[in-house]
Structures are given as C-alpha cells and as structure tokens.
Amino acid sequence: MMEFTINSVSARLHQKLREYIEAQYPISHPxxxxxxxxxxxxxxxxxxxxxxxxxxxxxxxxxxxQMNLPAHCKEAMTYFSELSPSVGIYxxxxxxxxxxxxxxxxxxxxxxxxxxxxxxKTESFLHPILNSLIDEGFNRREQFQTHAVxxxxxxxxxxxxxxxxxxxxxxxxxxxxxxxxxxxxxxxPLFGMYTSRTPYPGERTKEKDDYQxxxxxxxxxxxxxxxxxxxxxMKKRGKWIAxxxxxxxxxxxxxxxxxxxxxxxxxxxxxxHEMQTTPPDILVTNYSMLEYMLMRPxxxxxxxxxxxxxxxxxxxxxxxxxxxxxxxxxxxxxxxxLLIRRLQARLGITRDRLxxxxxxxSLGAEDDDxxxxxxxEQLTGxxxxxxxxxxxxxxxxxxxxxxxxxxxxxxxALLDSEQFTNRIHQYDTLRSNLQAVAKxxxxxxxxxxxDELPSYLYKSLDGFGPLELxxxxxxxxxxxxxxxxxxxxxxxxxxxxxxxxxxxxxxANAAKNNERVLLPVRIHLFFKGVSGIYVCTNPKxxxxxxxxxxxxxxKMYDSPKLQCTCSKEARxxxxxxxxxxxxxxxxxxxxxxxRNYLWAEKGKGIVGKELTxxxxxxxxxxxxxxxxxxxxxxxxxxxRTGYLMKSPPEDPEGYLKLYLPHxxxxxxxxxxxxxxxxxxxxxxxxxxxxxxxxxTKGEQPFANLVREQFLLQPPVKLNKQLxxxxxxxxxxxxxxxxxARLARDIPHEVELDSFSPFYWRLKN
Length: 764
Hints:
Layout: H1 6-24, H2 30-40, E1 51-54, H3 71-81, H4 95-105, E2 110-114, H5 121-139, H6 141-144, E3 151-155, H7 158-171, H8 175-185, E4 191-193, H9 206-226, H10 228-236, H11 245-249, E5 268-269, H12 272-277, E6 282-286, H13 287-295, H14 300-312, E7 318-322, H15 330-347, E8 354-359, H16 369-380, E9 388-392, H17 406-413, H18 417-421, H19 427-441, H20 453-461, H21 465-474, E10 479-480, H22 481-488, H23 494-510, E11 512-513, E12 516-517, E13 521-524, E14 534-536, E15 556-557, E16 572-578, E17 584-590, E18 612-617, E19 632-638, E20 644-645, E21 655-661, H24 663-666, E22 691-693, H25 700-712, H26 736-763
Parallel strand pairs: 2-8, 2-9, 3-6, 3-7, 4-5, 4-6, 7-8
Antiparallel strand pairs: 1-10, 1-13, 11-12, 14-15, 14-16, 16-17, 16-22, 17-18, 19-20, 19-21
C-alpha cells in the first residue's frame, strides 16, 4: 500500500530527482556511486524539508442592507448577491471589502488595499467600480449614456490581464447583471481587454478580419453547436466571450464592414476596433500597452471621448486600479508614475479627479502604515482634497486550539491515505476505514454518499482543537511540517506525529461548507539541481558517508571547498565523469610553465599567468592501453599540498596516484585549450567532449518533477471530457523567454520520458 502523506510525496519527488541525476550523470566506481547517493540524500542538497501554509480566512462583515451605502447601491448589491449561480457577489462580504466599498464610495478616499493572498482583493476594487457605475446611472442617468472609459485597470503583465478578464466576464458579462442596468439606468456597462493579444493592430481590412477573427469566432460557435455542455462550463468559468457571437460574425452580404460590430446586447468588446469606436466603461490593460495607446493616433478616439465625458460634469471621475502595485518599484515604478501623469494630461484632469485603488499582498505588511500611503502618493501623485486610506484584512475569529492526545494521533494515523486520495474510485472501501477513524474520535456515522462527505468532515472538524492549533500556526505563515507535527502531537514519536498531522490536514482540506474549504492549505516543496560535485582526494578519508576499503576518493561536497575536514586535510577538487561509461576524473588547473602544482580553481597562478584546465584520471586505465596517443602517464598528487610528482614517492602514504593524458594527444592544441584525453582510458571510446562535470543541466530534471507531481495528484472528477480526471499543473516563470522555453521543452521531455519504458521493452 502506498502512502499519500506530506512526507511520502516529498520523498517520492526527491527520489525521482535523485534517480534522474544518477541516470543522466553516471558514475561507474561503486564507492563513488554510493557516496554520491548519500550526498544527494543529505538534507538541503537537492531538496529541503516540506513547509506548510494556510491561506488566511477573513472576518465576514454585515449584509449590504446594513452597510453605510446609498439606498440604490444597497438595493442593487443585495439583488446581485442573491443571484444563483453566483456572479461573485456574496451576501456577506469580508470586513475589508466592506471597508473598501464604504471608504471609496461614501467617504471619498483613495485606497491602498493590503491584504493577503486569497483575501478577495479583486472584489475590493471591482465592487467600488460596480457601485460607482450604479451611482452614476442613478444620479446622472443622461451622462451615463455616454460611452467613455470610467475605470482603467492596470496590470504589469499580460497573464494577469487575462486572469482579470475572466472575473469581469463572470460579473459584468452576466446577462442578469446587464439586464438590471438596462432596466434601471438605460444601458449596461461595457468592458474590454486591450493588450497585444487583443485582435488586431492597425486599420481594419477584410483580409485581416478573415485571418485574425474568423477562425476564433468559428471556434467558439462550433463548441456552442456541437458541445453545448462544454460551452456552459466555459461561460461559468469566465472563459467565454460575453457577446452575441452569431450576430458578431454575421453582416450584410457583400459588405464586410458590417461584420464584427458591437451588438446592443454585447457586454464585452472583443476587438481593438470595437473599443476604438466605443470606449468600454472598464478597460483592462498593462502599462506598456497604455503607453502605446497614449501615443498612437488610432487609439485617440478612446481618450477624446473619455475627456469629453469628464468635462461634462465635475462629479465624473476616472477610477485607476493598480493591481499588484508592489511591482511598481524602482525604475519601473518611476516609468508608471510618469505614465499616470501623462494620462492625466491627456484627459485634462487634476489628480483629485483621478480615483486610485492600489492592491497588493505585500504593501502595508510593515508596522509603519505611513510607508504604504507614501508609496501610493509618490506613484500616483499627492491629493489636495482627499486622502489615501490603507485597508488591511481582519482575520476570522476562531475557537482556541489545543494539543492533540495520543488517542487522537493514533486515530488519524489509521486513515488509509491511498484510499482517501482515490476516493472517487473506491469510496465504499474508504467508508469502512473512515468509520473506524470516526468511531475513535467520537464523530457521527460517515455518510454513504461521497457528495455528502465534504460537509460531514466540515461539521466534524470545525472547531476541533488540534486543527485550530494548526490554523493558528500556519495561517498566512509557512512553517516546517515537522515542527507543526511535533507541536500538535507531542506525546507520540515523530513518525507517528507526522503521519497523524498529514492525515488531519488531508481531511481538513477536503472539508467544505457551501464551497468554503475548512483549511485551504498548501505545501511548499523545494528542489534544486546540483551545482557541481567536489571530492576529497584522501581515499582513507574518515569523513566519508559510506565507509569501505575499496574507496578511491574521499568525502563528496556539493560546493567548492579548499580542504576536507578529514585528518589529512586533503585537497578537494571537482569530480568529472565520462558520460558514456562513468569513469571518474578530477578537474584541476596548471601553469603551462610549471606543471608541478594542481590548482583547484580557475584563475591566475602566483606568477600571474592564466592557468590551463587539465583532467586527471582517478581509476586505473584499461590494461590494453598502449603507447602513442592512447598512452597515459602516471603522476602522484600530494593530497595535503596539491603538488604533483612524476616519480613514485618513497612513502606512498599521503599521495594519490592519478593519470595524465599523454603529451602527444594535446601537442597540436592551442595553448589555452583544456588538456584532456582523446579517448577514455577505461572504455577506449572517443571522448569528444563527453568528460563533463556533474552539474544538473537543462529542463529535463524539472520536467521529471512536474510529471511525477502530476501523477501523484488525487483525481478530482469522473468525467470523460477530463482525461486526466481533473489533475492540473500550473507553471510560473519570472521571464517571458523562460516561460516560452518551458512551454516548448517540458511537454517534449515528458513525452520522451513516458515513451522510454516502452522503447526499452521493445528493444529487450
């Protein structure tokens, strides 16, 4: 039976990475192979101990009827909160969302919303935008009919823009929300994404329409016609364009310009030309595109119409949202600050007519709240008639925690984690196991229906002392899993405590009440490649991890080191191997004029001359080595000093016998090239650059980890349209080029890795 605990998953991933390194960077000598294995299994070399962290749960505020809002806003928000399926407005928002809405709409403050990840920061600016539109529609109905940009949501990158457009589709793209606006205020709001991905740049032409738009719209219409269930799912998740696509594609026969125009019931503007003709009320873009839009003539109508709307009434203001505002620091922050001032100049407004909302999970994290306000003022400009207000999250008040008992630890350890992980396939078997756990804990009977299990677990675990203690410790704060396990179950041994804690977290993460997860916990697993392997030159090194008389070298290190800590204080050099047979070499550096000393690092010798890299064979050469280019020359290394001797020392103690490539093999090489072997002295094959270091390279090790992590995920849904049963892996990168390489290379590496076992079976 396989365990699916935090430690077992971490160990499986560690093992997968270690096996990859051992397979791709072979070592033939058993003593070196075992020593490297022990090195790779040492804590911190290729992986670290798991950390766990829970997303904080925040305090709920009152219903909209009890908030300090205008009556027409209360009415609208109450109506939207009662819609089913939900549009993302719940009956009771978080306290910080309530404070943001009241402060912005009633008190007139600009906002800095500094709450943690998963706290609903998006709603902290979407709800003020929504209510500003409601307020304008109610108080200035005639002006509300004017199309202009009323809210500009600015992001640092396209990926965040794409994520935001799904949220806008779920709220402003909902037909019930748009109908409410039409019935009460004469029209519904429009929104649009304006980035490099928005089709398409330049003037409209028939050829560009056919090339840029036809295929996209036909794709959606084909899904709607032939796979209606998928279309419904995409609409629910905000992945569907919020417009009448049939009307959008159709037009008068022979008149291509009548196609791809905005219909009266459209909520989303999909093309650049739509937005240039009819500015959306809510425009989502990134700061790079905004700079282009302020310069290019083709986007001029967007700003001219917005400028005219702003000039109609002093009460009309532009809302500027800077999401992930902490990214606008340093040079990029200065660029965005100047860009905001250019935007004001283009629209002809003062800073007081620009309503700003900045959101970030890290701003305001310090005790000094004034630093966040000062940052906001420097970025957007200082206000004369208003001020910024810092909004912080109020965490949910929970019951006090307590230490778990021995009986509770053994009860949770009884859980079959493999059956629980695969519960959608084997719930009947799991139920009897869960019943035994529940009986020990004094819970009620486990439900017969899998769909009822989440609410059962929520009811049983909500307020449970040991779980509340865990929540206290890890809410918004990552901590070592072993420390948490020992804190919660101190009366049992560490292995049992970790198993019980892991199972408790597994149950709490599966516990739900009305789609609210009791403990949204995440595990932080850290893995890295090897930056090189360095080895002590003392075969009798007492510091070795693997003891034995057949050792040819000493202790291995994962970073450069001048000397080993063994009694001989032997020199440490980088280990190389032949990729085809695993023969061991060490890398050193010598002066061309004085070859009697082996340096461990590249650089200049005492005389100031450039050193030349040289490879020295550690293992005895093949017995068939003959004279000529295949021959090797023995040399003896003083392991304490690093000096080389061409003749055997009288006392071999403290010396390591190595082999140099014959001079004839390198006589025609340029002076600064590496002195190495043309043929491997052990397997007799040509080298051609295959004597290499043991640094982990490329995307392959990462791809192996991704694939293993994917396979270890529990299945989520039994659905033929989900061939992986709902398993997902989302990868992030800190650069576009790196992300592009990952998108190209990882699927390729995973396919090769998947195909390799079948190829091996066919071959053998």
